[in-house]
Amino acid sequence: MRILRNIFTVILLLFVSKSVYAKTIQIDFTPYDSFSIEVAHIDVGDTIEWLPNADHNVEFLGGPNMNSLPEKSKFNVSHIVNFDLPGVYLYQCTPHGNMGMLGLVVVGNNLKNLKEIEEIELSPIAKSVLQRLIVEISK
């Protein structure tokens, strides 16, 4: 009985310690039609909250598992996403994406799907911004 209690305690500590160390990053929208953090480096299990804005939203264009990407956010509503899969995620503001309002989330410092992100069809301006962001994560 004591062994089972010790095993349960260890499992509980592992679960609690993961949630204690998970963090939330807040991203705001700037007056220059960009995100306050254009490249977010986070750990698996961390959360990002995009703050509400009447003129902007968040729409994911790519990630390590396209079926698990969240739906695009509504305007003027906080958008919270927990990232459980490592890899690179590309997102945009829907009405300003063609003008280069993009952001990247790098989860677990894993760049395994970067080639797929680079191949996403974008406007020439957005493609230029994406290339700048990729140079930033490749440093």
What does this structure look like?
- The chain is an alpha/beta fold.
- The chain has one domain (23-137): Sandwich (Immunoglobulin-like), CATH 2.60.40.420.
- It is 28% helix and 23% strand.
- It is built from 3 helices and 7 strands.
- A 4-stranded mixed beta sheet has the order 2-7-6-4.
- It is globular.
- The relative contact order is 0.17.
- The model has no long low-confidence stretch (mean pLDDT 89).
Please outline what is shown here:
The chain is built from three helices and seven strands; from the N terminus they run H-E-E-E-E-E-E-E-H-H. The protein is of the alpha/beta class and 139 residues long.
SSE layout and pairing:
Layout: H1 2-21, E1 24-27, E2 39-42, E3 47-50, E4 59-62, E5 79-82, E6 87-92, E7 102-107, H2 114-118, H3 124-137
Parallel strand pairs: 1-3, 2-7
Antiparallel strand pairs: 3-5, 4-6, 6-7
* CATH architectural category: Sandwich
CATH C-level class? Mainly Beta
Helicity range: 25-40%
| Main sheet properties | 4 strands, mixed
**Average pLDDT taken over every residue:** 89
Task: Supply the key terms.
single chain; 3 helices; Immunoglobulin-like; 139 residues
